[in-house]
Design a protein that fits this description.
The protein has about 475 residues and is of the alpha/beta class. The protein has three domains: about 140 residues, 3-Layer(aba) Sandwich (Rossmann fold); about 110 residues, Hect, E3 ligase catalytic domain fold; about 190 residues, no CATH class. It contains 15 helices and 20 strands. Strands 3-1-5-6-7 form a five-stranded mixed sheet, sandwiched between helices. Strands 14-19-20-18 form a four-stranded mixed sheet. α10 crosses α15 and α14 runs antiparallel to α15. The longest helix is centred in the C-terminal third of the chain and has 50 residues.
């Protein structure tokens, strides 16, 4: 009988529990002799966790099973050597059976060629998965406690820092490159040219020893670590996707370690990245400053740049006019023909930014985009308001059924109305505070943008506009509604 043995250890298990590879291999070899099977062919997995199936020797063994015409046995010393996730265990078992293999655990006394073995497999798989989740929960709670109550570093250092005796310290050589890159970006240099210099000329590597690409470069310069703050529990992994948690779940420690760049520079970098992201690959094209921002107020489609050319016999030259034309009319035929002059619209927006920079915050009536994050849980507050309505309806029903008196109904109504008023005030105060904050930020951004607006550098002007404008609605080619960025 052909046997594929799969011994596996992670580094911690080998050190702490004595689950050495040699011990597992000896046990599997002895088991095969006792059963009268062939000596096992080993696929030795050294230093890989069982949290998923992305393991090199596991991959080799599965490929071998898939292409093997004879079938046989897959053998481990314990079920958790194979996997600690029930779904993975059951999926592997289906795969093994499909290709003529059965799974056997040498110390837990079952094999999947029998109904009893399959039942035990599922039961033990559930226990193994439960234990792993409990361990993960304890580790997470411990790490959270360390992050909240100490300055000890519990994550790998990012580029620019090293960890010495559990503390984050600045790596001088790397920090110099970060400061230089930040200044170059704010001076208008493209990120691509900086990355090219790091990779090809200066031979600067990431902390993992890899070459830089745009995603890793951008992520580095967006990390709060660079301003001396420490953020834990910001993201989690769901399969292969990295998902950002709500901001109120983050553990944010200010002034946790020495900063490489100051907060003002960091904020300018974030605005720069936001602007470039919204413009995308058209950022280097300065023909239309408002690409992607102009929206038709009738059909809500984008209004894109369009060139109109005509020849003047009188002037003996070609006339070129630049317009923003409704995409709903041009490509979808669900709107009517209307456009707006490029130069007029762009000058209006630039003049408006200058006007904001010179105005008192309380004197302006401005529209803002919906914030990405709320200072309170608005959905939760609205859910509580809905519950109050249901509670009040129950009181009314009880009164109609003569279960409570009119006096009881009045008291209940007053109590509910008081709670309603408190929740509505919470919503109103939150909205007002957020608007005041958005106005103050917009005024600051406008003031810092005036020099660029007056410089005539269309690339930089385009960048600034995309940092502070969310969209521009145009109605009938004349009326404008400017929506400013809230964050």
């Amino acid at each position: 009988m052909q046997v594929f043995g799969y011994p596996r250890v992670s580094t911690d298990e080998q050190a702490d529990k004595g689950n050495s590879l040699n011990e597992q291999m000896e046990r599997m070899t002895a088991y095969c002799k006792a059963m009268g099977w062939d000596d096992p062919i080993f696929f030795i997995e050294d230093g890989f966790s069982a949290k998923n199936l992305n393991r090199p020797e596991m991959t080799k063994m599965l490929e071998r099973i898939k292409n093997d015409p004879y079938g046989g046995i897959v053998l481990t010393t314990k079920l958790d050597r194979l996997s600690r996730k029930l779904f993975d265990i059951l999926s592997l078992n289906v795969f093994f059976n499909k290709h003529g293999f059965n799974y056997v655990s040498a110390t837990e006394g079952f094999d999947t060629s029998t109904p009893a073995g399959r039942l035990v497999l599922q039961m033990l798989g559930m226990v193994a998965e439960f234990e792993r989740e409990r361990i993960s929960e304890r580790v997470r709670d411990n790490m959270t406690s360390i992050a909240r109550n100490t300055t000890k570093v519990i994550s790998r250092p990012c580029f620019g820092y090293d960890i010495v005796d559990g503390e984050m310290v600045i790596n001088i050589d790397e920090s110099i490159e970060i400061i230089k890159a930040a200044n170059e970006l704010l001076d208008g240099k493209a990120a691509r040219s900086i990355i090219k210099r790091w990779n090809l000329i200066d031979k600067i590597k990431t902390k993992e020893g890899n070459e830089w690409h745009e995603k890793t470069f951008r992520e580095l310069l967006q990390r709060e670590t660079l301003i001396g703050d420490f953020v834990y529990n910001k993201t989690y992994k769901n399969g292969t996707k990295i998902i950002t948690r709500p901001e109120n779940e983050w553990i944010y420690v200010e002034n946790h370690h020495p900063a490489i760049i100051d907060k003002e520079t960091f904020e300018k970098l974030q605005n720069l990245f936001k602007g470039r992201k919204s413009v995308g690959r058209h950022f280097s094209d300065d023909r239309y400053l408002l690409s992607g921002l102009v929206v038709c107020g009738h059909c809500k489609n984008k209004m894109n740049g369009k060139i109109y050319k005509s020849f003047s016999k009188k002037m003996n030259k070609e006339n070129i006019r630049y317009k923003y034309l409704c995409d709903g009319y041009l490509k979808k035929a669900n709107c009517f023909f209307h456009n707006i002059d490029r130069d007029l619209l762009e000058k209006t927006i630039q003049d408006r930014i200058i006007e904001i920079s010179q105005s008192a915050p309380g004197s302006m009536h401005l529209l803002f985009s919906k914030p990405k994050t709320d200072s309170i849980d608005k959905a939760g507050v609205k859910a509580k308001l809905a519950k109050l309505d249901k509670r009040m309806q129950k009181q009314i029903d009880a009164y109609n059924d003569d279960l409570i008196t009119a006096h009881d109904l009045k008291l209940a109504s007053e109590k509910v109305e008081k709670e309603r008023a408190e929740l509505r005030k919470l919503l109103d105060d939150s909205s007002k505070a957020h608007r005041d904050n958005s106005v103050a930020k917009l005024v600051d951004r406008a003031k810092s943008s005036v020099d660029v607006i007056l410089s005539g550098d269309r690339i930089k002007i385009k960048q600034i506009i995309h940092e502070i404008v969310d969209k521009i609605e145009v109605i009938n080619g004349e009326e404008l509604s400017i929506v400013w960025r809230a964050d």
